[in-house]
Amino acid sequence: QVQVVESGGGLVQPGGSLRLSCTASVSVFEGYNILWYRQAPGKQRELVAGIHAGGSTTYADSVQGRFTISRDNAKKSVSLQMNRLNSDDTAVYLCNAVSNLNSHLNFWGQGTQVTVSS
After folding, report:
1. In which element (H, E) is residue 57 found?
2. Are 25 and 13 contacting, i.e. CB atoms less than 8 angstroms apart?
3. Which of 13, 82, 97, 109 has the least C-beta neighbours within 10 A?
């Protein structure tokens, strides 16, 4: 059974940084697009950043220039470095692994809470 596990969330002051990690126990990790979403109370789930199987990246306008996504295929891991955090970044961050060849292979983690507050 595939497991997607997020880690690294926590409480941080405005202006601070956090690094989230996502690991996925899929058989061919390098063939998966890995996406980070976030969901804040009362708001729709939002795509924050993504890294495709080929390595290209995409970011929401709201995090462009502050967040950086990267992947380590050998470790089956994707990191999301988040800098200059503000209260609007407070949310549960969820990792989504989607096969580049078969979109039915689509797996979600349970999420990790990020709270930005003084």
Report:
1. strand 57-59
2. no
3. 13
